Amino acid sequence: MKLDNLFRDKTVFSFEIFPPKPTSPLSSVESAIESLSALSPDFISVTYGAGGSKNGGATTKIAADLKKKYNVESVVHLTCLYHTKEEVRQLLEIYRENGIDNILALRGDRIPDAEPCGEFSHASELVEFIKANGDFHVVAACYPEVHNESSDSVADMKNLKYKVDCGADHLVSQLFLDNEYFYSFREKALIAGIDVPIEAGIMPVTNKKQIERMVSMCGIHLPKKFARVLDRFGDDPEAMRDAGIAYAVDQIVDLVSQGVDGIHLYTMNNPYVAEKIHSAVSSLFKR
Ligand code: FAD
Known about the structure:
globular, single chain, eight-stranded parallel β-barrel, about 45% helix, alpha/beta, binds flavin-adenine dinucleotide, TIM Barrel
């Protein structure tokens, strides 16, 4: 089912998962997928080639299983820098054959020493291509703290507006730890004329290394409140996990209270953390 009408009646609560490494069997994520599906999120998105490898088979198989075996709507992520148009056309056909109706269209990160195919340079081109070659609901990424390659927030917002004009039906944000960035971004997006639903990406930070990597990779701002959590609990895995869950719950309560269109939870394939968060906030998503 295309997600077109999903945001009409309720605040959306969705999850993101990733396929196993190419060296591990798909069965290694089976039990995580089963537990996460049991929480009945509005949809689960499945990442693609994170880190650059082309893993279309695993992403597609998991997305198809989510629908057929677990009765949960799915979204496949698709990156384009290292694909030709013909390859994307073939992937769209495979999605159709597998009953997949929703695609998160991304440029993808650059792989050091690898030459892009040169047929797609920006996600907007992929959005346009998908819309011209099929009947899919197209999601795109957005960055409340500005994309890390963009020094200019105005140019970044103009590029986002163009991506929406190319056909993106809804947006999912990069993670952030300070909701004020999201509110300010949402207001600027409205002023820029972006009128599609924007889901807030929330990542429960349950270990110190994970967030240090995100801060250096994506330029995420570490608020004082969260820095104090890291200082106090960063070296105690159990306490850090609990504090990370509580922090994410606090962010979600505030976002839903302020009328966010949806929350996209980066589950990191961790059903324990997702279950704790889900049980704390699920009643907020009834309408
Ligand atoms: P774009 O929208 O193309 O933007 C990238 C940069 O180019 C921005 O700085 C933008 O301002 C600029 N730009 C855009 N259009 C133009 C233009 N016409 N002219 C000049 N500049 C322009 N990566 C993966 O590999 N696999 C995944 O599964 C994956 N899932 C993700 C899910 C979410 C929700 C998010 C937020 C990110 C995800 N990523 C994933 C990471 C993503 O691929 C990177 O952030 C990548 O660097 C940018 O992708 P994009 O689609 O946002 O690119």
